[in-house]
Write a structure and sequence with these properties.
The complex is a heterodimer of chains A (267) and B (613). By secondary structure, chain A is an alpha+beta fold. Chain A has 2 helices and 14 strands, in the order ααββββββββββββββ. In chain B, the strands form 11 sheets. In chain B, strands 30, 36, 37, 38, 39, 40, 41, 42, 43, 45 and 47 form an 11-stranded parallel β-sheet that branches. The two termini of chain B are 62 Å apart. Classes of the chains: A alpha+beta (267), B mainly beta (613).
Amino acid sequence: MLLRLLDLDNRGQTTLVIVVLVMVVSLAVGVAASNRAISNIRRVSYTSQGDQALHCAEAGAEDALAKINSDLSSGGSPVTSGFVPPVNLKDTEGVNICNYSYSISDFAGSVLTYPLVLQDDAQEINLDGYSGTLNLYFGSNKDASLEVTFVKGGSPPYSIEKYAYNCNPHSNGFDSPKGGGQDLPCSTGEFAGISGYKIARVRPLYADTKIVAVFSSQSPSQGYIVDSKGTAADAQRNVQVVRTRAQLPAIFDYGIFSASSSEPLGK
Amino acid sequence: MLFCVICSPSLAFAADDITPPISSVSLDPSSPDGKNGWYTVPVSVTINSTDLESGVKDINWQVNTEPWQKKSFSNTLNMVLNSSFEDNADGWEFVPAVGSVGARSNDYAKLGNYSLRTSSSQNGLSKWSNKESYVVVSPWKTVTTGVWIKGQDVLGTGAYFNVYILTTSGERLIYTSPKHVGTFGFVYEARDLVISSDTAYGLYFELVLDGIGTAYFDGVYASYASDKPQVVFNMSDNGSNVLSYYATDFAGNIEQTKSVDIEIDSVAPTNWRDFSTERAGNDHTLVSSITVLDNASGLNSNSSEFQYSPLYTFLWGYFSDYDKCSGTFNNNKWLPTQDSFSDSALSGTLSTPAVDYCNSNWLLCKGLRFRIEDMAGNVSTKEICINGPWVQVVDSDVMSLGGIDMLSGAPDYNSNALVLSPKAISNFSSSRGWEVPYYTYSGPDMSYNDLYSKYKPDDTVTELPTDAGIFRTASGFTVQGNTVPKDYLQKIFSNVLFVNGDLVIKQDLNMNVASGTIFVVNGDVLVDKNVDKVSGFFVVNGYFDTSYNGGFAQDPLVVFGGVYADHFNLSRSSFAFKNKDNPSEEFVFDAKYLVDFGSIFGNVSVKWNESED
């Protein structure tokens, strides 16, 4: 097309067309460049707003945890009916930066996910008042094995049942795992006939692992879940916090714990 | 092996590399230090790969069935021209000695089919040199050099290689490899060298036979050492390990996978357990047996022995008429046991014949000592006090960070739950077989000060508290008549008592079945030998001593609860034959602490996650 235009007899017209073409191209380049710049500015702005929203969501979760502690110490229930009204966070000049809103619900249900439980730590599962079955899925690290201790009885003296499962094989006499599920490769299989139990203490050995507890019906409350939303301009970030019931540390699972690494337990 | 040489000896690249890399493994220690081909220490593994044309791209390795691992390289091109002599010996000049002959040969080769051979019937130094086709190098760079060398009946100084650098002021020897004599297969001699001259511009090799015999040279290698094609790692897994490995080059050639067996057993036979003894005549003539495990190399069935110490003289050995306690006492000598091993010999039961221990004075310990080796040569011994005191733990786990080593075995089992230790477990068994020695424990520590700062006591007490809450004593505390409230057994409470010193228990410490106290003790817990029942969960900075004022007690001690202590002194023993059927200390777990104490002495777990909308 350009060649055809250059063939025109009128050189003035040709020059005009070339000038117009150059302007159009320049304009296009300019528009593209400014679009790119605006896009970058937007991205930086969104990133900044996203960070603000996340910090705000975390502030909301902290607020909710404080409410849980306060309500529990005063004998009340911290559970909210839906999200609380948004709370604005302002800068030193009183300008709104972001806002948060949170809800507090019972950590209960038929499928409960316990985020990573550390090796040699204990995760307590409340079974008080529960009747039904329980299956524990584990092995996000397949080296992890699981010891499960059930405490039975309505009042002291309680009785004890113990089970132990490997995910990968280890030389320890533990049972082999049952099939996986809940995106985890191993399980304990179904513990049937759970009734009159107080708690289960679940202890990973050899490695940390995520644990998913599957109940045949609604579980007793295991604590609280906080869902917190932070909003800054167009950005929203969400934080979830699982706060379990208070439980004794894992050393209380031992009848004898000899902490000296230099001297054997001997007789 | 076709090379395209452009302009000068300095520039070469692989135009048609069809030869895969060659990898070799070296181990440290270089040969098994134990018996029967077993290592008894962790092994350092080095995989070296060479590729004479396009260079090693990556080394891949796998231990047993674990996932393959890969290490990639970027600058491993061999700069030596005609390094494997597959088509000719161009670029290499032979400098003979009297009586020596040099030739390109297909007798033996490490890479491809050809190598350079030097045969000499008279003593003298002959060599191959690539001085005219030197490798171009830059000053002060580090270059990895290497040559495969094989020898047959080499006498004299030996077969080796020299490396020279060329500088504007002449040539200079910078390295002489180790010298090999005798008959030997291809060995790879390699060394990283610094081109130590400001005016260096080249490097060349001399492949030397100094003496009589025949030497072969192959795979001459030089590359900048910034990315040395080498992998180094340690193997410490006990058992028979298979290491598989291969390398690839930049032309896409893949080496055939090779493997090497590395058998490691660094642990002596362990988990001595299930000691039992039966009368075989009078009440001091006994047949005894014990079980032992070795999960790596297995037990050496020809190595099991026993000796005994019947008279509490600390002399160990046996009487020549050991079934009659008569004859000569063979001091420090051993008798063979009668054994029964599992098919794989990973476990075995060692039994003594009927042995007369000379008298019925069971107040004193009659010692019996077993000894066995595993196939790797690790030796394990176990001493037993026959009819000695033992410990039982009911319904709870046992952990000892320093190992478990009991002199006397339980008639049945020591525990009905899990037994863990990062070290050996000896003569302490679980009815479920849940004994886990050499366990890597990663749980937290616990101390008086940590707990005291976290759980502030409400009040200071001078007698055992019977209210709910957290209390402290000003100093040490003694459980005796005036410190135990009169209605203590009737009260229902859950509390914690910080004892700022030793806790001395001089009388039975019984509580209501629904009550409990966690004692956190900034000292020792000292239990009187006349006390036979103690309730509570004890967290102890120092010793938990079950019979501080003399080991012989009329009755065993039963602890209802549990004990976490820095040290245990399980010093209690019963008189006469009580030890045979009754534990001297029994720890009966009380789960009320788990159920009822979370709210006053527990922690909540708080886990954060960013979630989707």
